[in-house]
Design goal:
single chain, 7 helices, 6 strands, binds 3-methylbut-3-enyl trihydrogen diphosphate, binds magnesium ion
Length: about 240
């Protein structure tokens, strides 16, 4: 009898390679981002089918503003388009949508759309879909540090009460299970300022496949590889306890 595979509770994905996918086809980079959006749809649906509890997607980093203005505005327009188009069906499918990142840099219109989308879906009990938009792992740590500093300054807590647990609870996504698996498509072996604090003990999986070509089978493959990993969290292998 084959052992049933374990489905990670929280998967985070660095969706990289849209630009190269378009360039390979002599198309504009933005058409790669459009193709990437189609992959997002498929992967969100599949994650819900697999009963993954939380899926976190890196859509726009705090450093992506460095790109040419036309690409940045195309990415933001695509985000607005996707929010408008998908929110009803996400809600119908019991998905809870949550945006992580510093949204204050977006237009008021987009900020309102984000708030409305989060409110609409906040009581849904199915898949939690976190979209990281203007997100940076360093920004996240800093915003938590600022909250803690304020609590110390106002006397709400003492410096000694600023524990790892308290600090963690001020980080983005503290209400969700820990990130089990990080997948990066597009062939680069780096984190690019995505989750930092939260991936201290996550398993990392890298694939050369460009994001628009990522699919259910490749997602399955990543989960299968995750199942071969032994997570020790600094402890010992189960059997070693017997020695
Ligand atoms: C990832 O694809 C999507 C975003 C960063 C928004 P890229 O646009 O980085 O694609 P490559 O890495 O240039 O191929
Ligand atoms: C990471 O990809 C950001 C997203 C996928 C949103 P980048 O393409 O921005 O990362 P670098 O520049 O290769 O590190
Ligand atoms: Mg890239």
């Amino acid at each position: 009898m084959t052992q049933e595979r374990y489905i990670p509770s929280h998967v985070a994905i660095i969706m990289d390679g849209n630009g190269r996918w378009a360039q390979e086809r002599n198309q504009m980079r933005v058409s790669g981002h459009r193709a990437g959006l189609k992959t997002v749809r498929k992967i969100v649906t599949y994650a819900a089918t697999l009963k993954i509890k939380v899926l976190t997607l890196y859509a726009f980093s705090s450093e992506n503003w460095k790109r040419p203005a036309n690409e940045v505005s195309a990415l933001i327009s695509l985000f607005i388009y996707a929010l408008n188009r998908e929110i009803k069906s996400l809600n119908k499918n019991n998905v809870r949508l949550n945006i992580i990142g510093d949204i204050s840099r977006f237009s008021e219109h987009l900020q309102n759309m984000i708030i409305n989308a989060q409110n609409l879906t906040k009581n849904n009990s199915g898949l939690v879909l976190n979209i990281a938009a203007n997100y940076g792992g360093r920004w996240d740590i800093l915003q938590s540090a600022k909250k803690m500093a304020m609590q110390v300054a106002t006397g709400e807590i003492t410096l000694d009460e600023m524990t790892e647990g308290r600090f963690a609870s001020a980080m983005c996504m503290s209400e969700f299970p820990e990130v089990d698996l990080v997948i990066r498509t597009g062939g680069e072996y780096r984190i690019s300022n995505f989750l930092l604090w939260q991936i201290a003990y996550s398993e990392l999986y890298f694939t050369d496949t460009l994001w628009p070509d990522f699919n259910q089978n490749l997602f399955d493959e990543a989960i299968n590889v995750f199942n071969t990993r032994e997570r020790r969290f600094g402890g010992l292998h189960n059997k070693e306890h017997l020695c």
